[in-house]
Amino acid sequence: MSKLRVLHVIGGGEFGGAEQHILNLVSTFSKEDVEAAVVCFYDSLFASKLREAGITVYALNQFGRFDLRLLRALRDTFHAFDPAIIHTHGVKANFFSRLASRGMGVPLLTTVHSSLRYDYASPLAYAIVSLMERGTRHWNRHYIAISEALAAILREQGVPARDISVIYNGMDLSPYRQSATRAADRARLRAEWGIAEDAFLFGTVARFVPVKGLPVLVDAFAELVQGMQTPPSLVLVGDGPERARLEQQVRERGLEALVRFAGFRQDIPACLNACDAFVHSSFYEGLGYTIIEAMASEVPVVASNVGGVKEFVFDEQTGLVVDPGDHAALSKAMARLQQSADLRQSMVKQAVEKVESSFTIEEMTKQIVSLYRQLLG
């Protein structure tokens, strides 16, 4: 069986779920079966992580946001690498790759990581990216949806079911399953954040953007701690354009003593080890990487019942679920988690079983390589 040459293309200006997915995937490919490289439009943290993992990176960061010279540079890269398959991620990568690859006879595969409607809050921005995406879909061969919820959106938009494969994002669970460092991580980070060892700590990990619903979480937390003599604490791990607004909301609510902003961090397994419960407040989620990470870390979760989350967070089994945007319901669910150790223990056990059966990087990689060969066959 011949070796596959696969070229992944992504904007790569930040390090989120799509970037982590690519890093997981290309690092797990069998070197005997697949020769992979990644094109990034920015030479950023993601490109650095790829290089650290020994992955070939083509960084095209000399161009502006929508500089048409990017088309020529991308096409030159395609010819230089000579891929059997081009695998794209994200609207900008999809758009430019579909244009740049015309006439090459190379099948294009796109992974859909999220819903555009929730990625772009501005109606004008959403209209533009929708035109970019849908106007070039006829040049695309196949789609991977990372959840059935995203596959349903594609079907509603007219993509034939035969052109869609649902393949859950897999991840390396081992950093989240290591219990030896949990006590040390908990002590170290709580000391860093100024949180008492015996305080009940709620945590979340997210980009600070509107779709993540973080103001709803702050409102829920404010309601939870009202009148408590020994209130819990909350740590928000991440960064983004909404940070200033969230910090202002915390001040207005008088929560400065209880809420910590940890900033962008790369030691997420350690951060989760420091938490007693994980809270997810998004208005939409294609799948929910951070929830899976929390579940693998044996941290009980409460999550918005949206998108792909519905496919693995089952109420009172693998977690608690609430309607998105309902801060009162979220507050009550958080209270239940804090008050019932038995509930937390029961859900953690089932959650670990679920992630270990559904979200391993090995299973994801096997399915994607099989799909590559089907497309070429």
Write up this protein.
By secondary structure, the chain is an alpha/beta fold. It has 2 domains: about 5-170 and about 360-375, Rossmann fold (3-Layer(aba) Sandwich); about 175-360, Glycogen Phosphorylase B (Rossmann fold). The chain has helices at about 15-30, 45-50, 70-80, 90-100, 115-120, 125-135, 150-155, 175, 180-195, 215-225, 245-250, 270-275, 290-295, 325-340, 340-360, 360-375; strands at about 5-10, 35-40, 55-60, 85-90, 110, 140-145, 165, 200-205, 235, 260-265, 275-280, 300-305, 320. Helix 3 packs across helix 4 and helix 10 packs across helix 14 (about 325-340). The longest helix has 18 residues, at about 340-360. It starts with a strand and ends with a helix. About 40% of the residues are buried. Its EC number is 2.4.-.-. InterPro entries: Glyco_trans_1, Glyco_trans_4-like_N, Glycosyltransferase_grp1. It comes from Brevibacillus brevis. Keywords: Glycosyltransferase, Transferase.
Q: Outline of this structure?
A:
The chain has 377 residues and is an alpha/beta fold. The protein contains 16 helices and 13 strands.
What is the overall pLDDT average? 93
Q: In percent, how helical is the residue content?
A: 40-55%
> Judging by the overall fold, what is the CATH architecture of the largest domain?
3-Layer(aba) Sandwich
Strand order of the largest sheet: 3-2-1-4-5-6-7
Radius of gyration based on Cα positions: 21 Å
Q: At the third CATH level, what is the topology name of the largest domain?
A: Rossmann fold
Number of domains: 2
The helix-and-strand class reads alpha/beta
User: Low-confidence parts lasting 5 or more residues at pLDDT below 50?
Assistant: none
What string gives the helices and strands in order? EHEHEHEHEHHEHEHHEHEHEHEHEEHHH
- SS element count, helices: 16
Calculate the terminal CA-CA distance, rounded to whole Å.
12 Å
